[in-house]
Amino acid sequence: MDAKEMTAYRNKLFTDVYNNTVPDRVPVMEAFSFGFHAEHAGENFLQVLYNLNDEVLDRIFESTMTFARGDQIGLGSQKNAYGLMFSKSKVMNIAANGMIQHPEVSMMHEDEYDEFIQDPYAFMVGKARNRSYGMCDTDDKAQYLINYLRLTQAEAEQSRVMAAAASRAADKYGLFKAPPGSGGSLPVPFDVLADTNRGFSNIVKDIKRMPEKVLEACEALEPYAMWVGNRSKPGPLSANGIPGHMAPYLRNKEFEKFYWPSFEKLIHLQAARGQKTNIFAEQNWERFLDYLQELPMGTRMYMEFGDPKKFKDKLGKKMALGGFYPISLLKTGTKEQCVDKLKELLDIMMPGGNYFFRFDKSALRLGDLNIENYTAVMDYLFDHSKYDNAGEKVSDVKIEDTIKHFDPVPEFKSKYFIPFEEWIADYKVPDDSVLPRLKETYDRISSAVYPLLTR
Q1: Residue 298 — left, alpha, or beta (φ > 0 → left; ψ -120 to 50 → alpha)?
Q2: How many Å apart are CA 272 and CA 313, to the nearest integer?
Q3: Which are the contacts of 271, defined by CB distance < 8 A and separation ≥ 6?
Q4: Is residue 88 predicted with pLDDT exceeding 80?
Q5: What does the alpha-carbon distance between residue 64 and residue 42 come to, in Å, rounded to a whole number?
Q6: Rounded to whole angstroms, how far apart are CA atoms 115 and 340?
Q7: What are the residues facing 321 on neighbouring strands?
Q8: Looking at the whole model, is its pTM more than 0.90?
Q9: How many CA atoms lie within 13 A of 54 on its CB side?
Q10: CA–CA separation, 214 vs 208, rounded Å?
């Protein structure tokens, strides 16, 4: 097959597995971080972060493609080194080896719950963000504007060059390409509250000392989370991603009380508008399997740890599943052990479809895996992952029959979220005929900007 034919074939693999259909073979997603890509190409990772350009990125990807076999091989997301400099970030920094470090931080004080609950977005933008970035440490509006424009320009430049490099490589090698706009996100209220607002240590105390405030804060975050989820366009390959951070660190009763209600509600509300969800189950979610059975058909999920047979038995007819293969084994195991682990996983996960291959986590550095072991695993995978019943439906159950009814969450409102009609009220429009285009552009640009301010 030439590159275009290969892309079409790979696109169909993912379209099938994501839409209740047995594919021709198991689709394969790679798990290489940008650091791994760079080091395999012989680059100094730290220096690459400060020298991202077409030539460097093409050279890095060409190096990866000398051995990579997957259907989807991205360069991976990478924090912007210049963006961190312009923002003077306090929530992450770059180590001397190029790796991003995330210190434990808390940008919301214990006595600020009521303020947060009243307008979560305004708090995150007006207080938490200001505490997270040194560029905000100024009362001079002009200086803040200059600081912020430098940050946005730096991030826009890197986004363009990374996206262009990935697109060139996908076209050249016939890799799977998700449609533009198909990859959205769906924030989990408890994770939003726990990550950098209260922080891990403080949220653990809060759920014991002030549980009702935590519940009110999670509920107050639902309109914002739903609005972010609504930015993506539903489609056969579209999904909103959820990195499930805090769930495995909670006791079962805490998960049921604080995490699950908003989590389940938002996923079902998104499914009702035709949008699926792609969940990364960090750590081990096995004890939550009975809850996960309540999610709508078509949900995608990939796991770090857990018993794959239990996940397949309970979720295999409803969800497209991946993960479980420990990428660390490619470093520590023999070639035979690596292949045997794959055989074991295929025997469990492959029957009946609804399975895509993905390692449990990404290789961060070149030393995280033995490429000979990786090649042996991929050779076996491609030789033994074809289906003889391709095209059959995984289940006769209709997606709409698995969607629970939840009352819509309130409309997202904030003092910093200004509707078009309010914004345009004191602006002289040359002619009413241009209003539709003005509104479309205002909503589109605002939709792209508002979520960025809470990162």
Answers
A1: left
A2: 25
A3: 277, 296, 298, 299, 399, 403
A4: yes
A5: 11
A6: 55
A7: 301, 355
A8: yes
A9: 4
A10: 10
The burial class, CB within 10 Å (0-12 / 13-18 / 19+), for 358 is buried
pLDDT at 184: 87
User: How does the average pLDDT of the chain come out, rounded?
Assistant: 92
In angstroms, how far is CA 410 from the centroid of its own chain?
A: 25
Instruction: Give the alpha-carbon dihedral of 166, 170, 171, 172, to 10 degrees.
Output: 100
Please name every residue paired with 363 in a beta bridge, in sequence order, or none if there are none.
Answer: 32
CA 345 – CA 363 distance, rounded (Å): 19
Per-residue pLDDT of 254-277, as tens digits, reads 999 999 999 999 999 999 999 999
**Tokens standing for residue 397:** 């159950």
CA nearest to 372, candidates 421, 422, 338: 338
As a whole number of angstroms, the longest Cα–Cα distance in the chain is 72
CB burial of 26-62 (b: ≥16 within 10 Å; e: otherwise) equals: bbbbbbbbbbbbbbbbebebbebbeebeeebbeebbe
Contacts made by residues 336-342, CB under 8 angstroms, sequence distance 24+: 338/373, 338/376, 338/377, 339/376, 339/377, 339/380, 342/377, 342/380, 342/381
Q: How many residues does the chain have?
A: 455
How do beta strands 300-305 and 320-323 pair?
parallel
- Sequence-distant (≥ 6) Cβ neighbours of residue 218 within 8 angstroms: 189, 190, 193, 258, 261, 262
